[in-house]
Design a protein that fits this description.
two-stranded antiparallel ribbon, mainly alpha, disordered C terminus, two-stranded antiparallel sheet
Length: 272
């Protein structure tokens, strides 16, 4: 029972996840799209070049496949051309025997040799009829075979032109990729020259180092100044007299007086 409840809960969660819809589709699809977009943003020009190189490799493989097909087509063409050649030779042989037989009939010979066969005068007509039928049949077969050979040759020529076009496209792509790689290298060099990120980091580190050195120097100056101006304890110096309230007030009032003290007679005489 518990297993059924757990399975049911999992199904309900997954079902709710896929059923939940947003403007862009299911929630899962939105997440996937976001991940794909993030991945696309991280693709660099170098990555694009590598993708093009992979496509060029596919073209190379396609060219190899086409070359294999072309080799097979040429093999078939040679076999079919050989059949046509045999049929031409057979047709020439039949025609030659027909001409020999016709000449014997015109000369009213009692017999004639046709290759390994000797034909009597009474069999001339029947033999010539058979040779005529054979000649027509071979002609028809040869015509069909020659059409097949011609069609095969056209296919071979088309295949060869296709391979050449693929090679030209492949070579052009390779040249374009080489130029693109050179442009990317130039761009990267410019980025290195104009890049401020590393320089800023170094500058910030140097600034922090200078500030730290300045703080240390100030603290050292403070220590030196304190040692220079702070009175030192003299063991032979008399103890300082304690200031009383009355003496402190008297000194303060004297300091606040604006008029000087009255001159004495002796002071007046000295002035005169």
């Amino acid at each position: 029972m518990k297993k059924f409840l757990v399975v049911g809960a999992i199904v309900a969660v997954l079902g709710g996840l896929f059923v939940f819809k947003t403007q862009d589709g299911s929630l899962v699809r939105v997440w996937v799209n976001k991940l794909v977009k993030k991945g696309e943003k991280k693709i660099t020009p170098e990555d694009r070049v590598e993708q093009i190189k992979l496509e060029i490799k596919k073209i190379d493989q396609a060219i190899d496949d086409e070359i294999d097909d072309l080799a097979e087509l040429r093999q078939q063409y040679r076999a079919e051309e050989k059949v046509a050649k045999n049929q031409r030779e057979r047709l020439d042989d039949v025609k030659a025997r027909m001409k020999t037989l016709i000449a014997a009939m015109n000369e009213e010979k009692s017999q004639v040799s046709l290759g390994n066969e000797t034909v009597q005068a009474s069999e001339y007509a029947a033999k010539l009829d058979r040779l005529t039928r054979e000649c027509n049949n071979v002609k028809k077969a040869l015509a069909t075979q020659e059409q097949l050979v011609a069609a095969r040759k056209d296919v071979i020529d088309t295949q060869g032109r296709k391979i050449e076009a693929m090679k030209e496209s492949r070579d052009q792509l390779k040249q374009d990729v080489a130029l693109l790689e050179a442009e990317i290298k130039k761009m990267r060099l410019k980025q290195v020259e104009n890049r401020t990120g590393d320089d800023q980091l170094i500058g910030q580190t140097q600034e922090l180092l200078d500030r730290t050195r300045a703080v240390v120097e100030v603290e050292n100056d403070k220590i030196d100044l304190k040692g220079e101006y702070k009175p030192r304890n003299n063991p032979n110096a008399p103890p300082e007299s304690k200031v009383t309230k009355e003496s402190a007030l008297k000194k303060a009032m004297e300091a606040l007086e604006d008029t000087p003290k009255a001159e004495t007679k002796e002071d007046g005489k000295k002035t005169e």
